[in-house]
Design goal:
By secondary structure, this protein is of the alpha+beta class. Helices cover 45% and strands 25% of the residues.
Length: 279
């Protein structure tokens, strides 16, 4: 649940946001024309994209390319609300900030993917603290300070442990490649994303996604995913000591009753009985 959402705008574009989220919560977003620096406090977070998932510990950050994402805020043991800060990086604003130096900042390199984990650092921590102060004293923020904060985070990112790949990432931030259906499916086969969410990551409507999937796999998405997840279930039952419920959620099922029923339909016995018979 989103408890509160505040933002600062520049030229009618939202450039900095602060959200207060009550976990567990799945947040979906599409960055059509901007990249995003995302920092999550007080919560473990899983970022799901067309090419896979990224686990973030509390007080860690990530840079996201243009594209569709789902962020699962799973919370912490204390059950505290989670503060999320986002800085949106628009090409037009970056060019305004850097002018002729803009191409120099973005040097070519070999880096791929839709996300780049930043981790935690003193510089990032202080930057987030400064954003918090501006949201507490909104009257102090102005256009010049907004531009300064955007430039500051770019310079900070270039000094983090991801500096060697950030320049190439920035080059590629604004030219997203649409992931194929097979990439989306294979990267998220054990995530609990719905068909609607998988379609969104494929940049398709649900009906178009189903038709394209059927054409490529000669099967329905629901049946294909169920079969793949049951095969993985069989492996985990034989090779690990995970409980049946842990396996259920790990392979991508949302409901233990549906999971057990589906397993018995395929293997004629319950997951527990299957394990006892084969170990």
């Amino acid at each position: 649940m989103i408890l509160n959402r505040e933002s600062f705008h520049l030229k009618e574009q939202c450039v900095i946001e602060k959200l207060l989220i009550k976990p567990p919560h799945r947040f979906s977003t599409v960055f059509q024309d901007n990249a995003c620096f995302l920092h999550c406090k007080q919560s473990d977070t899983v970022v799901l994209s067309a090419t896979g998932k990224l686990h973030l510990a509390p007080d860690n950050a990530v840079v996201l390319k243009c594209g569709s994402y789902f962020a699962d805020f799973t919370g912490n043991l204390a059950g505290d609300p989670c503060e999320v800060f986002a800085v949106h990086l628009y090409p037009s604003i970056l060019k305004e900030l850097y002018g002729e130096d803009f191409p120099v900042i973005l040097k070519p390199a070999e880096a791929k993917g839709t996300t780049r984990e930043i981790g935690s650092s003193i510089l990032v921590t202080h930057f987030i603290e400064s954003l918090g102060l501006y949201f507490e004293h909104r009257e102090q923020m102005n256009t010049e300070l907004l531009l300064l904060k955007i430039k500051e985070i770019v310079l900070i990112l270039l000094q983090t442990n991801a500096a060697s790949t950030l320049s190439s990432l920035f080059l590629d931030l604004y030219s997203p490649r649409q992931a194929s259906i097979s990439e989306v499916i294979e990267s998220n086969i054990h995530s609990d994303l719905s068909l609607e969410e998988l379609a969104a990551l494929s940049s398709m409507s649900l009906s178009t996604f189903k038709r394209a999937f059927q054409k490529q796999y000669q099967d329905t998405p629901a049946n294909y995913l169920k079969e793949k997840r049951l095969v993985e279930t069989q492996k985990l039952l034989l090779k690990t000591d995970l409980s049946v419920s842990e396996i259920c959620y790990r392979v991508g099922f949302k409901d233990i009753a549906h999971f057990s029923r589906s397993f018995k339909e395929k293997y004629t016995v319950s997951p527990t009985h299957f394990r006892s018979l084969n170990r």
